[in-house]
Amino acid sequence: MNPQERAKERREKRLQEISLLRTIPYSEHHRWWTPETIAVVTGANRGIGYEITRQLAMHGLTVILTSRDSVVGLETTKVLQEGGLNVVFHQLDVIDPLSIKTFSEWVEQTYGGIDILVNNAGVSFNLGSDNSVENADNVIATNYYGTKNMIQAMIPLMRPSAAGARIVNVSSRLGRLNGRRNRIEDVKLRQELNNDESLSEELIDGTVENFLKQTKDGSWVSGGWPKSNTDYAVSKLAVNAYTRLMGKILSDRPEGHKIYINCYCPGWVKTAMTNWVGNISAEDGADTGVWLALLPGQPATGKFFAERREISF
Questions:
Q1: Helix, strand, coil % in the chain, rounded to nearest 5
Q2: CB under 8 Å to 301, separation ≥6 — which residues?
Q3: CA separation for the pair 271, 274 (Å, rounded)
Q4: Angstrom distance (rounded) from CA 87 to CA 141
Q5: What is the Cα 149 distance to its own chain's centre?
Q6: 303-306 and 309-311 as β-strands: parallel, antiparallel, unpaired?
Q7: Member of which family (predicted)?
Q8: Strand ranges (DSSP E) for the chain?
């Protein structure tokens, strides 16, 4: 058996374990949430976002399903409501500051705040071995800045509780700093991004802006960026770094006002984004995101996960 076959066998075994874990209900002791607990899921009209919404609602939470397209979002919400789930819809475009402001005001007026934010909205325009950066601006704006701007908008609306509020960022192993195959070649930059003391919002923003600048003049090809799905990988590298940064910043909040933030890789999921050629179902791809959102006790923060296990950045 070659290494690829062994990895596939391990992954399939782990997914079977997780499918079994998913059938075990949370005990009353571990259920820190109620039907009044409010979760927001971005980009939730299909794929992983839809599954995260459905699974959170199945656990008895109130879930706000958001999407750019109101018609599709309303239709999707209606399907979930007809299944007896407590899901409501609101339009949200994470790259539009006015849309985020309108949504935030509506949330505050309607619910007074939220308890869980799942940043799932994301785009990728490359299929298979394609590696165009033609849409890099859109990819970075949606995947990184959209996620960052939603976090900043929702933090003031996170309701105090003994269990703490939760932020989950859907990310990717493609954005790992120290991955063997797809990492940034600039050792100094990698060390700066890896070091909690030097990591800053300015460093992360500067990294993605430098990448975007290089996509305009063509120098990105020799710029030492990840080789596979480059624009998407850079956007997710930024999401991972920002998750670590916010984990550190938010850890200073007092008891009763805690906010736990983590990111996770759902795997290569069969969705429209992968042109349905992934090797994991949307249900399995959503699992770790839901698990992180509902973790009982004092969960980890500023960490990266896959298949319900912590992995390295």
A1: 50, 15, 40
A2: 247, 250, 251, 259, 260, 261, 262
A3: 6
A4: 27
A5: 13
A6: antiparallel
A7: Belongs to the short-chain dehydrogenases/reductases (SDR) family.
A8: 38-41, 62-67, 87-91, 116-119, 165-170, 259-264, 303-306, 309-311
223 burial level (CB within 10 Å; 0-12, 13-18, 19+): middle
Write a three-state SS string for 240-289.
HHHHHHHHHHHCCCCCCCCEEEEEECCCCECCHHHCCCCCECHHHHHHHH
Decide: 255 and 163 in contact? Cβ < 8 Å.
no
Active site residues: 232
Dist. CA 38–CA 235, nearest whole Å: 28
Query: Side chain identity at 45, as an amino acid letter?
Result: N
Give the C-alpha separation, 184 to 180, whole Å.
10
Residue-wise pLDDT for 10-30, tens only, equals 888 988 998 898 888 899 989
Q: What is the pLDDT of residues 109-147, one digit of tens each?
A: 999 999 999 999 999 999 888 999 999 999 999 999 999
In sign, the C-alpha dihedral spanning 10, 12, 16, 19 is: positive
**What would the pLDDT profile of 150-197 be if each residue is shown by its tens digit?**
999 999 999 999 999 999 999 999 999 988 888 999 999 999 999 999
Average pLDDT on 221-225 reads 95
- Integer CA distances (angstroms), 227 to 38, 132, 232, 283, 288, in order: 39, 11, 11, 29, 27
Average pLDDT on 34-40 reads: 98
pTM (global) more than 0.70: yes
